[in-house]
Design goal:
The protein is an alpha/beta fold. Helices cover about 25% and strands about 30% of the residues. It contains six helices and ten strands, in the order H-H-E-H-E-H-E-E-H-E-E-E-E-H-E-E. Strands 3-2-1-4-5-10-9 form a seven-stranded mixed beta sheet, sandwiched between helices. Strands 6-7-8 form a three-stranded antiparallel beta sheet, with no helix packed on it. It binds S-adenosylmethionine.
Length: about 210
């Protein structure tokens, strides 16, 4: 994953140019800007900072983290302002912040997490947030004809795609497409007000972290 996203950093944002996805992306951008207005946001797996730039428009501050330096380098060139701090951090092992954040964003990471590791990820992610924080996780719905086909499924149900980068290199990448009930079940007992919105190309899972955790 790290090598793949490091190699893909320069071409990553082209995924947001697909013409058929523009109207849904606009809905998501507006949703992100409104949801994080006046919040102190912890973003995990920020990549090249595509979503960070929209959070930055309305949030009080953002700690935007990713495990890949190459994508963070590109994110920093966006110059989003003094209220945005980019930092190299593993979403599975976030340090406890001096002051917990009031909101969390995980964009397009869920699909790359092995199914049995989702709870470990959520536990680390939530540890950086105040009880009652608003959280948005979002990712892709599998869209026939637009998504890269699934090349195999492993014994625990994770699905994979074979992706080719512009330099010709081929990478097998885990890419899961959870159902609405899988998403809601994953946050059962650790959240309140959980809702899933499914579009043609994207899904969002929105909830508040439980008041006791
Ligand atoms: C599909 S990209 C999404 C980037 C960005 N959120 C976006 O939507 O444009 C996935 C990102 O997850 C990062 N990543 C993968 N595993 C991670 C981990 N354990 N901790 C933090 N970042 C991770 C990769 O480096 C990559 O930048």
């Amino acid at each position: 994953m790290i090598q793949y996203y490091a190699a893909r950093a320069r071409e990553y944002d082209r995924i947001y140019d697909k013409p058929e996805r523009q109207s849904e992306l606009q809905i998501l951008r507006t949703f992100i800007e409104e949801t994080f207005r006046n919040e102190r946001v912890c973003e995990v797996a920020c990549g090249t900072g595509y979503w960070t730039q929209y959070v930055a428009k309305t949030a009080t501050s953002i700690w935007a983290t990713d495990r890949t330096e190459a994508t963070l380098e590109m994110a920093r060139t966006r110059k989003l302002g003094a209220h945005v701090k980019f930092d190299c951090q593993d979403a599975f092992n976030l340090p406890l912040p001096p002051q917990p954040f009031t909101a969390g964003l995980a964009g397009f990471l869920w699909s790359h997490i092995s199914k049995p590791d989702i709870q470990k990820f959520l536990s680390s992610f939530h540890s950086a947030l105040k009880p009652g924080s608003i959280v948005v996780c979002m990712d892709n719905v599998f869209a026939e004809g637009s998504s890269t086909p699934i090349s195999r499924t492993d014994s625990i149900g994770n699905t994979y795609q074979t992706r080719r980068l512009e330099n010709g290199s081929k990478h097998e990448v885990m890419k899961n497409f959870p159902t609405e009930s899988e998403l809601l079940k994953a946050v059962e007992g650790i959240s309140t007000d959980a809702t899933v919105q499914c579009y043609k190309y994207y899904w969002t899972l929105t909830y508040r972290t439980s008041l006791s955790h």
